């Protein structure tokens, strides 16, 4: 697969390090890249003239998109492999990866906004991620420990049941179908117990 290519991963790390350190000579940037102004609307002051020598605009966008995805995935990987209190190096790298994700996402939003394609929209959640990055560095508390993945999954399942029902009978049908699913779950569990026991 393309992402398993060692050269590609190495290039992603080089691009990420250059974006983090601000040593990207092909960027004309607002000197306050780490400020919330990047998120609040002044991100249009930071755009690349040339991302890498000899690359087309399409390749440049793909590289920024890959950096955006890689940095978020790297942060999640670091947090998932750590305890509730992060060591200083992990907290710093996680924070830098989240900030890099914000920078890359903001660049993509500005690029596509100029083309009048509303794909990467800046929402309040991006500002929240900025505060999470700052808190990761300062407090060194693993925020993934407090995640509510199971609650969100439950709400998603209820929504799927609700959208399959007619609007007039939705309330009663959601409860009926949910109870039916619970009954099937209990029945399967009992069958499994009988087959093992």
Descriptive report:
With 197 residues, the protein is mostly helical. It folds into 2 domains: 145 residues, no CATH class; 48 residues, no CATH class. It contains 7 helices and 2 strands, in the order H-E-H-E-H-H-H-H-H. A two-stranded antiparallel sheet has the order 1-2. Helix 3 runs antiparallel to helix 4 and helix 6 packs across helix 7. The protein is extended. The chain starts with 5 loop residues before the first helix and ends with a helix. The N terminus is likely disordered.
Write the layout of secondary structure elements.
Elements: H1 6-21, E1 27-28, H2 37-40, E2 47-48, H3 57-80, H4 88-114, H5 124-139, H6 149-163, H7 170-196
Strand content: under 5%
Q: What would the average pLDDT be, to the nearest integer?
A: 76
Helix amount: 55-70%
H/E element order: HEHEHHHHH
Return residue spans where pLDDT drops below 50 for at least 5 consecutive residues: 1-12, 22-53
Tally of distinct domains: 2
Question: Which strand order does the major sheet show?
Answer: 1-2
> In whole angstroms, how far apart are the ends?
44 Å
Number of helices: 7
Which structural category do the helix and sheet elements fall into? mainly alpha
Shape: extended
What does the radius of gyration come to? Answer: 22 Å
The largest sheet, given as strand count, sense and whether it forms a barrel, is:
2 strands, antiparallel
Structure described in brief:
By secondary structure, the chain is mainly alpha-helical. The protein is 65% helix and 2% strand.
